[in-house]
C-alpha cells in the first residue's frame, strides 16, 4: 500500500513536527473519521478483468466496485512494488483452489461414467485390439475444469483492497480513508499479507501490520502470510503432475508383450516425470529460497530503512510541502507499542518465529498436497473407464482403489519427500551449471521414491495378475501402514502452535 499525506501549509520545521504529531495521534486512535470510508469489495470483484485492480495504474472506476460495509472479512496487505502476476496467482489459488479441485473431481467422475457407458469416444492404445477404446477423458476434463474454475470462480468474501476501497478522485475522502486506516484494520477479521521481498521494505506495509496487531490487543490475531511464490509454485506442481499422468492414459502398448508391453505407459510417465519433475523441484526450491529472504528481511526490519514516497520526493510535490509519512507512522507505533524499536523487537522475537515455522509446516498441508496430486487419481479413473467399457468391472474397480491409494497415500508421501529435499537444499548454487546439477540430483533422489511406488505396483500386478484383489491388497496394504506411521510421526512432532498468535504490546 502506498499513500501520501499532502498539504501542510506549515513552512517552519517546528510547525510541521507539531502537525505530524497531531495527525499521528488521530490515526493512532483507530477511529473511522467518515462513515463512508469504511468499505469493502467482494474478492471476485478484486480479481475481475485478470485482477485489473492489482495490475493497472488507472484506478478511476475501480471505486465503484466497493460498497459500505461494517465488517471486513480480510484485509489484503501487499506492496505495489512487487510483481502483480505472482500476487494474482497466489490469490487465485487461495480463493478458488478448493472449488477448482471439487468441480474437477466431479467432472472427471462424470467423464468416467459417460465413457463406461459408451457415450464418449476413445483412443486405440493396444494395436492388436483395435476395437478396445481407451479413455483419457477424466484427466483432460479434470484439468480443463480445474483451470476454468480457478480463473472464473467468484468468491464472495468481503475484502479490503486499497485501490478499490479508497476513493482516489476525492481528496477529502482519500484523506479520511488514510486517517481511518487503523480503524479499518481494527474492523477486519483477518489480514492476509501477500509477501514478496519488497513488502517488508515499504513503510505503509509495516504500518498495516503494526496497526492490525495492535488492534487485536491481547487476543489472538488471524494473520495469514502468503509468500507470492506459493501461487505459481502450486500451479507448476499441479500442471507437472497432469503432464506426468498424460502417458499413463495415452501411450500405445501391447498387452501381449507382457510385462514390457504394459510397462510402456509407466516408462512414459517416468520420462515425463524427468521433465515435469525438474520444473517442480526448481519451483519448490525457489519457494523455500523466498522464505529465507522473508526471514532475513523480517530479522532486519526497520522503520528507518523503509522506503516511502514522501521521503523519495524530498517532502515537496508541485510546490506544496508534504508531511513525512515516516514520522507519522513512527509516532503512531510509539503510541501503540512504546517506541518503533519495541515494535521492531517484537517482530524479530515473536512474529518471525511463528511466521517462518508456519510457512514451512502449514503451507504444505495434507489438503494442499491432495489438491496438487489429484491428477494421479484422474489418470486411474481413465484406466478404470477403459476396462469398464469392455465389461471388466472387477479390474475397473481395482484401478479405482489403486488410484485412491496412489492419490491419498503415495502422492502426499512422495510430495512430502520432495518438499523436504527442496527445503534442505534450497540454497542457490554459485553458477547456472551447478544449479542445474542440484536440481537434477534432487530429482534423481525424488525419482527413487517414485520408482519404489512403481516397482511395488508392477510386482504386485505381475505376481498376482490373475488374482486382482490380492494384487490391490498387497499394493495398498503396505502404503496404508506407511501413511499411518507418517501421520503418527507428524502428530507427535507437531508443536502446539495455533493458527493465530498474539503480539505483546506495551
Ligand atoms: Zn518522509
From TrEMBL:
Keywords, ordered alphabetically: Membrane, Transmembrane, Transmembrane helix
Chain segments annotated as transmembrane: 99-124, 136-153, 223-246, 266-288, 368-390, 396-421, 442-464, 470-489
The name this protein goes by in its record: Transmembrane protein
Organism (species): Durusdinium trenchii
High-level lineage: Eukaryota, Sar, Alveolata, Dinophyceae, Suessiales
Amino acid at each position: 500500500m502506498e499513500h501520501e499525506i499532502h498539504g501542510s501549509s506549515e513552512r517552519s520545521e517546528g510547525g510541521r513536527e507539531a502537525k505530524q504529531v497531531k495527525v499521528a495521534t488521530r490515526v493512532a486512535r483507530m477511529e473511522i473519521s467518515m462513515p463512508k470510508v469504511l468499505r469493502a469489495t467482494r474478492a471476485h470483484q478484486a480479481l475481475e478483468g485478470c485482477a485489473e485492480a492489482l495490475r493497472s495504474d488507472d484506478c478511476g472506476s475501480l471505486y465503484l466496485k466497493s460498497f459500505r460495509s461494517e465488517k471486513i472479512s480480510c484485509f489484503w496487505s501487499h506492496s505495489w512494488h512487487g510483481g502483480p502476476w505472482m500476487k494474482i496467482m497466489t490469490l487465485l489459488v487461495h480463493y478458488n483452489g478448493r472449488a477448482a479441485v471439487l468441480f474437477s473431481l466431479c467432472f472427471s467422475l462424470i467423464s468416467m461414467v459417460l465413457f463406461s457407458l459408451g457415450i464418449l469416444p476413445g483412443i486405440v492404445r493396444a494395436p492388436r485390439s483395435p476395437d478396445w477404446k481407451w479413455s483419457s477423458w477424466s484427466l483432460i476434463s479434470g484439468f480443463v475444469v480445474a483451470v476454468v474454475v480457478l480463473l472464473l470462480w467468484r468468491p464472495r468474501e468481503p475484502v479490503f483492497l486499497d485501490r478499490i476501497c479508497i476513493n482516489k478522485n476525492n481528496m477529502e475522502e482519500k484523506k479520511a480513508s488514510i486517517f481511518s486506516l487503523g480503524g479499518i484494520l481494527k474492523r477486519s477479521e483477518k489480514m492476509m499479507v501477500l509477501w514478496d521481498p519488497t513488502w517488508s521494505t515499504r513503510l505503509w506495509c509495516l504500518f498495516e501490520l503494526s496497526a492490525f496487531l495492535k488492534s487485536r490487543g491481547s487476543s489472538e490475531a488471524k494473520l495469514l502470510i502468503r509468500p507470492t511464490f506459493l501461487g505459481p509454485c502450486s500451479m507448476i506442481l499441479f500442471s507437472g503432475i497432469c503432464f506426468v499422468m498424460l502417458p499413463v492414459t495415452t501411450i500405445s502398448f501391447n498387452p501381449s508383450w507382457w510385462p514390457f508391453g504394459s510397462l510402456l505407459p509407466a516408462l512414459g510417465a517416468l520420462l515425463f516425470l524427468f521433465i515435469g519433475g525438474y520444473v517442480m523441484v526448481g519451483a519448490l526450491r525457489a519457494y523455500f529460497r523466498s522464505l529465507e529472504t522473508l526471514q532475513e528481511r523480517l530479522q532486519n526490519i526497520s522503520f528507518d530503512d523503509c522506503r516511502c514516497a514522501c521521503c523519495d520526493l524530498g517532502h515537496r510535490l508541485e510546490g506544496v510541502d508534504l508531511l513525512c509519512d515516516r514520522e507519522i507512522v513512527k509516532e503512531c507505533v510509539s503510541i501503540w507499542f512504546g517506541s518503533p524499536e519495541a515494535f521492531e523487537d517484537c517482530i524479530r522475537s515473536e512474529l518471525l518465529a511463528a511466521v517462518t515455522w508456519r510457512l514451512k509446516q502449514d503451507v504444505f498441508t495434507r489438503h494442499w498436497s491432495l489438491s496438487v496430486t489429484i491428477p494421479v487419481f484422474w489418470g486411474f479413473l481413465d484406466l478404470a473407464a477403459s476396462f469398464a467399457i469392455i465389461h471388466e468391472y472387477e479390474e475397473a474397480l481395482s484401478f479405482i482403489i489403486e488410484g485412491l491409494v496412489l492419490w491419498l497415500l503415495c502422492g502426499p508421501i512422495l510430495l512430502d519427500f520432495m518438499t523436504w529435499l527442496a527445503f534442505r537444499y534450497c540454497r542457490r548454487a554459485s553458477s547456472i551449471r551447478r544449479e542445474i546439477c542440484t536440481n537434477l540430483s534432487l530429482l534423481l533422489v525424488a525419482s527413487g521414491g517414485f520408482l519404489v511406488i512403481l516397482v511395488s505396483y508392477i510386482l504386485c500386478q505381475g505376481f498376482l495378475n490373475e488374482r486382482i484383489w490380492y494384487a490391490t491388497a498387497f499394493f495398498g496394504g503396505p502404503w496404508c501402514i506407511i501413511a499411518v506411521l507418517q501421520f503418527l510421526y507428524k502428530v507427535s512432532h507437531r508443536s502446539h502452535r495455533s493458527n493465530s498468535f498474539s503480539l505483546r504490546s506495551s
